[in-house]
Design goal:
CATH topology: NADH Oxidase
CATH superfamily: NADH Oxidase
Keywords: Flavoprotein, FMN, NADP, Oxidoreductase
Bound molecules: flavin mononucleotide
Radius of gyration: 19 Å
Protein name: Nitroreductase
Number of helices: 9
Strand order of the largest sheet: 1-2-4-3
GO molecular function: oxidoreductase activity
Shape: globular
Organism: Sulfuricurvum kujiense (strain ATCC BAA-921 / DSM 16994 / JCM 11577 / YK-1)
InterPro entries: NfsB-like, Nitroreductase, Nitroreductase-like
């Protein structure tokens, strides 16, 4: 098995974390770096990660997250939020993200136009925009979980939460929203068996 497939086999949605075991800061930094390096649509990097460490905040979040124990028991809790307003077409942020590629001005203008055409039908609806930016977060989260598994760090992706409550507890800035949450730490119990559909049930060649 390659290191990657070993990590895929090791990773499971950890339900019970060891509250005594902390992820070393340098390893957690490496996980955050993997999120930073993840790909995003048009390279807009809409994610803004909040690492929640304060016990009182964790406790408040737990009640907004279906009372899931992972929220308070994990070593590091990462809330993936998105800055939706800043990635709207035509903003200075979007221009800067294209300009940093070192393109001539007319090419930047072309990119701005293509981006506008793509995003207009999405950004006209707040929910569609939030969903679009959230999709990027899932890529970053997924990379973090798999990389964590190579370091024998467990994780649990968490979608079971009341979005509005989580946003209120974290007091998010206007235009920001919560996409998904991920708990990281170390398992207490052996991992459950990975149940999956067969390849032939999910893949078609045409
Ligand atoms: C986007 C997403 C959201 C999830 N939300 C939760 C959650 O809120 N609580 C939980 O215990 N597990 C959650 N899970 C874990 C899944 O239930 C789990 O990944 C799936 O059952 C497969 O099991 P495995 O990851 O252990 O192989 C989530 C998984 C994903 C990908």
């Amino acid at each position: 098995m390659s290191e990657f497939t070993e990590a895929m086999a090791f990773r499971h949605a950890c339900k019970k974390f060891d509250i005594e075991k902390q992820i070393p800061q340098e390893e957690f930094d490496a996980l955050l770096e993997v999120a930073r390096m993840s790909p995003s649509s048009f390279g807009m990097e809409p994610w803004r990660l909040i690492v929640v460490r304060k016990p009182a905040l964790r406790k408040a979040l737990k009640s907004a997250c279906w009372n899931q124990n992972q929220i308070t028991e994990c070593s590091e809790l990462v809330v993936f939020t998105t800055d939706n307003d800043t990635v709207r077409s035509g903003t200075p942020y979007v221009r800067k993200m294209f300009e940093r590629r070192g393109l001539p001005q007319d090419a930047v203008d072309t990119y701005m136009g293509v981006y506008k055409n793509y995003l207009e039908p999405i950004e006209c609806d707040e929910v569609l925009l939030e969903n679009w930016t959230a999709k990027q977060c899932y890529i970053a989260m997924s990379n973090m979980m798999t990389y964590a598994a190579t370091l024998k760090i467990d994780s649990c992706p968490i979608e079971g939460f009341d979005k509005e409550s989580v946003e209120a507890i974290l007091d998010l800035e206007y235009g920001h929203s919560v996409a998904v949450i991920c708990a990281f730490g170390y398992r207490v119990n052996p991992q459950s068996e990975q149940k999956r559909l067969e390849l032939k049930q999910i893949v078609q060649y045409r």
